[in-house]
Write a structure and sequence with these properties.
Shape: elongated
CATH topology of one domain: Jelly Rolls
Protein name: DUF192 domain-containing protein
CATH superfamily of one domain: Protein of unknown function DUF192
Organism: Halonotius pteroides
Low-confidence stretches: 216-244
CATH architecture of one domain: Sandwich
Oligomer: single chain
Structural class: alpha+beta
InterPro entries: DUF192, Saro_0823-like_sf
Number of helices: 5
Helix content: 10-25%
Keywords: Membrane, Transmembrane, Transmembrane helix
Length: 244
């Protein structure tokens, strides 16, 4: 006798076996819904639709066009962040090789530093400035964005020759004046510093660089403190040219 009053042989045939229809139905259910047969991404789910879209060749092509340049750009920024110097000295000579002047300052090597430039600086002392270090030579455009004082902008090609000098005044309205020049390096120095020191197009600039940023913890923003001891300042003797 059972507790629920059901016959002990309920669900069995006359031979005492399980009903075959129940057994077949149970096996089919196990086959359809068993954990080993469940699809990883069931139909009509958001995840499945995304995966199906990613299989489309056009979608793959668009992702390559968008993300590959982005990865390259991020990689270059990180590389510049770690391997570029924090400080440098630019020594300028005339076409005869005679010393004219030198300027020391922070190096702007990453896109963040180059976009900011001197816009977060209140003033420049004589003989100080900022050195913009680019990876290749081409025509570049600089503007006086959020500047607090006027400056001279010196464009320098990969050989160290000055190609253009601009006397850039303060501006408060858009569009800002675009100062163009063929360059791999750009110097921003005090206003009319080039005139006061007799510097002109065709003169030569030689750079001496401080240690790579990997030796100083990978600093990503140019420091505002003084120059490092291993960067020669105001040298009157023409040093050996160096490049990054």
């Amino acid at each position: 006798m059972t507790g629920n009053g059901q016959r002990p042989d309920a669900g069995r045939d006359c031979d005492g076996n399980l009903d075959r229809r129940q057994e077949q139905g149970f096996d089919q259910e196990q086959e359809e819904y068993g954990p080993t047969n469940q699809p990883l991404l069931p139909e009509d789910t958001i995840a499945r639709r995304i995966v199906d879209r990613l299989k489309n060749p056009w979608v793959i092509a668009i992702l390559i066009v968008v993300f590959v340049p982005m990865v390259v750009w991020v990689g270059y920024t990180v590389h510049a962040d770690l391997t570029s110097p924090d400080y440098g000295t630019a020594t300028i000579y005339d076409e005869s090789g005679d010393y004219l002047a030198s300027v020391e300052g922070n190096v702007a090597a990453t896109w963040r530093e180059q976009y900011t430039g001197l816009s977060n600086t209140d003033s420049l002392e004589d003989g100080h400035g900022m050195i913009f270090l680019h990876d290749t030579e081409r025509e570049r455009t600089y503007v006086m964005r959020d500047m607090a004082f006027p400056i001279d902008i010196i464009f320098i090609d990969k050989e160290g020759r000055i190609t253009v000098i601009h006397h850039a005044e303060l501006e408060s309205r858009d569009p800002l004046t675009e100062y163009r020049g063929q360059s791999k390096y750009v110097l921003e120095v005090p206003y009319y510093w080039t005139t006061d020191n007799g510097i002109d197009v065709g003169d030569t600039v030689e750079f001496r660089w401080g240690p790579p940023r990997t030796e100083t913890g990978g600093i990503s923003i140019a420091s505002s403190s003084g120059p490092r001891n291993d960067v020669p300042i105001n040298s009157k003797r023409r040093p050996t040219a160096s490049s990054p």
